[in-house]
Amino acid sequence: MSDGRAPDLTFPKITFGPCETPWDLRVYLYRGGASMRSFHALNAIDRGTLKAFCVDRLPLITALHAALAAKVASGARKGSIKTALCTVKRFYSWADANSQPLTIEKAKQSFVAWIEELIFRYRIKKDLAHKTAYHSASILADLLAHALQEDSQPVRSGKSLLALTRMSKPKQRPSIGSALGDKQNLAQTFAFGSFLADICSGLDVATIRGQAPVTLALRDGRNLIFKCELKAPGRALQNFPEFRRADAARAREPLRPDESTTTLRRRAMLRLRIEAELLIFVTQTGMNLAQAHLLRREDYRWRTEGEDVEVFRVYKSRRRGESLFRAYKEYKQHLQDYLAWLEQTGLALLNDRLFPQLSRGPRVAAEDALPGFRAMRKACAEVGLRYIGPRELRKTRVNWLLRHSRDPDMTAALNAHAKETLFRHYERPHHQSAISEITAFHQSHDPAFKASGPGICVQNAREPIAVLGSPRDAPTPDCANPDGCFFCVYHRDEMSLDYCWRLASARHLKVLEVALWRSPASQPVHPANLVIDRINAKFQAICLVGLVQAEWVDEATARIREGTFHPSYSALIELAEMLM
Known about the structure:
The chain is mainly α. The chain folds into four domains: 25-162, no CATH class; 182-296 and 358-388, no CATH class; 389-445; 449-578, no CATH class. It has helices at residues 38-47, 58-73, 78-97, 107-125, 130-147, 159-162, 179-202, 205-208, 242-252, 267-285, 289-292, 330-345, 347-350, 374-383, 390-405, 408-414, 419-426, 431-445, 497-516, 527-545, 547-562, 567-578, and strands at 214-217, 223-226, 303-305, 308-316, 321-328, 449-450, 456-457, 491-492. The strands form three sheets. A three-stranded antiparallel β-sheet has the order 3-4-5. A three-stranded antiparallel β-sheet has the order 6-7-8, with no helix packed on it. The longest helix has 24 residues, at 179-202.
């Protein structure tokens, strides 16, 4: 029954479950309706007990409904529409409690006042996060911008409304990947993948129909136990009272041949395997969860192309066309085994979905409701594994392919993305790849050669040039005198223990030269002293790089004290010591 004073404010294009209350914006036309649960508010409207009808709210509510309906028509997810409706509900509840006007003419005024309330909550009361407040403000600003838009003007975003308020965008710390973090993420992903494979291989029909409780042995030695609705699964039968022992034994028996596998006692295992198969499918094909969980079994197609196998052609709203999803050949047999499992368990007779959703009780979810993977989250918590959702699995797949192939075009094609979408939404920075790319760049633009002295030279047949600000009496770079390399712009240090050993040996040789020299009055400072100072400065710079590099310097210095010189300088040092 609808209110004769209001137009149809429902969303017929959105499907709801049998126990869900269809969305209806009529509740916001009544003062106090937004603060009630939708089910009770609609019942009160139909019975006529909710009487505070505000006719002046009708134009704004109608415009907001049109803006939300446009989002539904454009392909927005049901979850996104629900989030927007929850924001509208909070706004109207606040307006009712604070006697704020909710008309077309004063909507901006009420919106600015609501934003001030949000700012007060996250700055003063501290009961709301800045990020949450900004997210709610952005959603409502976007809806109001479309609702208040005149037909003769182009559609604007909510930024123009947000500019009228003091709401600021929260600062986001950039997430920078590290070597340790990346390795840990991959290790966790591999462990989670092994867990999914163990579930799919272990929960066959014989195991599901077997004696309860069911114990699934994992490859890492841990066990996953399914209670099968038993109240005391770990209790031995002899410990039950005699009058309950027969019932307990009957509850633990395998399923009878005439008993359905989909019985409530075994439904947890069925649900877990379906969720595991869905996660594996998303990982293999790179398909979006919103598309994958709605697939029907008749959509299942194989077509071989090169090393991959084409699996499905699915329409993508963002692409506005069909996308081709590919999987590896090895996955074909796995998916065929899963389809056979659906037939053997009887799930194929109950539902034509490739990944059917099994309800947990009387509340049946809508057909297009996204799975929450509650069974998988619970199983991961029981065995101590980190749950990894479909979005992160898809990103891991994309980045793994991108790093190993170094081919963005191929990676984008395999994941049914445009290359711009791949870089904007999926690519993650990877320091190891960056290091290799930087190294390759320097090797191609800054080629290195063995220098006359310790280190390497990148002069590439160019004339040597002295470092700007070199001492007047320093050795002149000429590609012949090893000492001149220390003062050349093309000289490069090496980060290695051997290089530090050569530097220490060269410094010791220069010390011997200074000791053998008898300085004339015209030149009181030997040029070798400048070389010694230059080597000391290099040692200080190497020590600042890290603890490992500092240990190289200490080790090289210790070798010189022990009389162990680098082979490149040992003969010259022996000759100098003979002249002492």
